Amino acid sequence: MSTTLLRSSTARAALRTSTRTSARLAGLSFTRSKVTLPDLPYDYAALEPAISGRIMELHHSKHHQTYVTSYNTFSEQLAAATASADVGAALALQPLLNFHGGGHLNHSLFWENLAPRAQGGGEPPKGALATAIDDTYGSYDALRAVMEKALAGVQGSGWAWLVRDTVTGGMGVRTYANQDPVMGQFRPLLGIDAWEHAYYLQYQNRKAEYFKAIWDVVNWAAAEKRYEQSG
User: Fold this and answer.
1) In sequence order, what DSSP letters do the residues of 139-195 get, joined into one string?
2) Which among 78, 98, 104, 193 is placed 20 to 30 Å from 159, CA to CA?
3) What is the sign, positive or negative, of the torsion defined by CA atoms of 149, 153, 156, 160?
């Protein structure tokens, strides 16, 4: 295995911004403090063959890092615009903050959604979440089919999420464009990235193969914890 696919402590330190926050992957708080690129709990190549190590390396260290850096930059600009009472500049920054902040949040949750096979990746859901899936969709395989259809329907870039409705308590599959995060009455349980940078280097135009292969490394244990916390 190439050493470039391994997350050495030096590489992890270089990827982080200098300012630390107390945010955690599943409970990020977007304040004036800078956000940081989270470490992965597995090596880049650990999800092969479902997702290549090279894709993981680029996706995490380049694409996600860009969202982190950009969010911090635009946050500083917003603080300056607010301090100078420049309402126009502050309003102009909001779409950029939403996009890059959403990209950071979505990817932070996404990394938790994945795990190597040796660490439980690909094992079907259990417990209350499994029961809810069966009650809603009839079976785990039926849910997978619904998710794959939703992912195939994403035009351009976006995500498909299994969510829980905090008002009704029910669950559903929802798609979000670009880097729009799951918000409002819905809580994210499991998300799959449908942006080309998540699969194209390995699967090219065969994105349906990626949507099927990723189930081999889905970490349902993380989704189960989110389900329990959303009730």
Assistant:
1) SHHHHHHHHHHHHHT--SSEEEEEEEETTT--EEEEEEETTPPP-TTEEEEEEEE-S
2) 78
3) negative
Residue 13 has pLDDT above 50, yes or no: no
8 Å CB contact between 100 and 182 = no
DSSP 8-class letter at 5: G
Angle of CA points 226, 218, 169, to nearest 5°: 30
Q: Which two tokens stand for residue 188?
A: 């994210």
State the maximum Cα–Cα separation within the chain, in Å, rounded to a whole number.
56
pLDDT digits over 58-110, tens only?
999 999 999 999 999 999 999 999 999 999 999 999 999 999 999 999 999 99
Global model pTM greater than 0.90: no
Token pair 């918000």 in the structure block, residue: 183
CB-CB contact of 37 with 15 (8 Å): yes
Measured between alpha carbons, how far is 77 from 73 in angstroms, rounded to an integer?
6
pLDDT per residue as tens digits for the range 156-211? 999 999 999 999 999 999 999 999 999 999 999 999 999 999 999 999 999 999 99
Helix (H, G, I), strand (E, B) or coil at 52: coil
Q: What is the Cα–Cα distance from 50 to 113, expressed in whole angstroms?
A: 14
